[in-house]
Design brief:
- 2 copies of one chain form a homodimer.
- By secondary structure, chain A is of the alpha/beta class.
- Chain A is built from 9 helices and 12 strands.
- A 6-stranded mixed sheet of chain A has the order 1-2-11-7-8-9.
- In chain A, helix 1 packs across helix 5, helix 2 packs parallel to helix 3 and helix 8 crosses helix 9.
- The N terminus of chain A is likely disordered.
- Chains A and B meet through helix 2, helix 3 and helix 8 of A and helix 2, helix 3 and helix 8 of B.
């Protein structure tokens, strides 16, 4: 029996009623992963904790003040009855207003440390040392679940797909989702193009972060490793993480109006914008089987900033 | 084939790790109903629309400015490709801040009319008349899904339960959930006590609203109708809809910390507070099988008001 007793659920795969260039559009709705309020961070963290040989006493992780990853870790630790320390950067919202991830993070007994970005590593180290001196078994989850096990969660996720798509598109952030999907597709010997739409980073920073996980996964799975296989499109970031303009919001509204599926301008709405741009510019053959992976994170809406 | 092509999903039933007086606590997580962002309004509205002999061209409904019901109707109409008019009361948030139900309601092409409470009925009537003059088939969904079909959704929901509980507790609001659960239990000849914890109304107003639906359901199902069977506890409202105090927030945090399940102070957290009070005061026999019905609506957090 592995460490965590967190039930594994699949997410629904449904047809998306979006007609662009006759593509058959399907959507993998990780936003609906049923527990811990959904999203790809649920998939990653339950895999990470389930892969441990025994459950630690304490987990420590980091993220932004409104982090989806932090919310999932805090709720998961609560369920498992273990302690959670969160090292959060960015502004602490001091208002009484109850909202978003903040409310649910603070609803758990996770201990929260707000720090500047340059103090994250040092703070994690200090908490770790202190816990270990108390004889506690500590496990540090990298921010965003950016780890080999986080990526392996998406190798497993590819097995949930009903058929081989021609393209998988998704919001590409810190890299574990991207590395895992790509390795998962290669492992199945599929010809699927795995295309990450960057939601924040430029390729110069984004690709090495993906390859840091993809390269060892290739070695492990006996897959030929080629950095060129990492397709990471940087032209749809709208200036950076959680930034948006009126055109993006207008787009998000249009696709929700057409589909009844909630999209946000931070992750999946931004990435889908990129996908439709590519499709409209005919860079993708008509009648392709397109799968869009909705990675959730809708509770992080309020960190969006107009540009 | 009935009107709506909205897939029916069940919600998970899980054990809640809350130990109070040795009760075996289970929770029915309608917050995780996988589509339209979950909650009991999904269950009601998909039942309401599926019960129509043909899909209307237009639905009209009403609710508060941050209404979960309005969000579900707007997304569902978008999925079905039909027009949705929302008549919303309460303050329109004019900030640029992207959050909660408002963002997702506005993400659809629902037409929104903000009005004062005393103008709701007249506004609905005017929209209806205008649409009908255009030759459109119009269906008005009562606010909150408060209708016989809304209640029937919960008669069907009782069939999803794994076993007969001794008690079903749940947040009781406008009445359809309550009427449906009670009728569902009676239909199965269960001895289950169906106990609604009022999240807003006093019994004087709450019970007649439930009975307005319960009485005709009893006639339809050939169940003996007794108003006394409606158990609606008014002592845990914290002063009214969405109102809370520090003790309630503290409680919500404690249960989330113990269970990893998100609760809010508007609906399920408030109701669960009432349940634990009852259990702690030993008004419920130890070792009872208790089912708590989590009705979702977590995106409405931001209308909460401290008292």
């Amino acid at each position: 029996m592995k460490g965590a007793k967190v039930r594994m659920f699949e997410s629904p795969e449904v047809t998306l009623n979006l007609s662009i260039k006759n593509c058959k559009f399907k959507i993998k709705r990780d936003d609906l992963l049923p527990d811990f309020m959904g999203g790809n961070k649920v998939r990653k963290n339950r895999f990470i904790l389930s892969s441990l040989t025994s459950l630690p006493d304490v987990i420590i992780t980091n993220g932004g003040a409104e982090s989806n990853h932090a919310r999932v870790c805090a709720l998961m630790a609560a369920r498992l009855g273990i302690k959670c320390h969160l090292v959060l950067h960015g502004e602490k919202d001091e208002s009484d207003y109850l909202h978003g991830n903040k409310f649910f993070i603070e609803s758990t007994n996770a201990e929260i440390n707000y720090v500047n970005s340059d103090e994250i590593a040092r703070t994690i180290e200090a908490i770790k040392r202190k816990c270990e001196l108390q004889g506690l078994d500590v496990f540090v989850i990298p921010g965003g679940g950016h780890s080999l096990d986080g990526a392996r969660a998406f190798i497993a996720a590819v097995d949930e797909l009903e058929e081989e798509p021609d393209y998988i598109f998704f919001p590409s952030g810190t890299g574990a989702t991207h590395a895992g999907l790509l390795a998962g597709v290669k492992k199945k010997n599929w010809k699927t193009q795995v295309v990450g739409i960057s939601i924040a980073r430029q390729a110069e920073r984004g690709i090495p972060a993906i390859d840091e996980l993809y390269a060892p996964l290739c070695a492990e799975l006996n897959i030929q490793h080629r950095v060129e296989d990492i397709i990471f499109l940087e032209q749809f970031t709208f200036g950076g993480y959680a930034k948006y303009n009126a055109e993006l919001i207008e787009f998000v509204r249009r696709v929700t109006s057409q589909t009844g599926v909630p999209f946000d301008p931070v992750y999946s709405g931004k990435a889908l914008y990129g996908v439709t741009q590519l499709l409209e510019k005919a860079k993708i053959p008509a009648s392709s089987k397109v799968l869009f992976w909705h990675t959730g994170g809708l509770l992080n809406l309020q960190s969006s900033k107009a540009i």
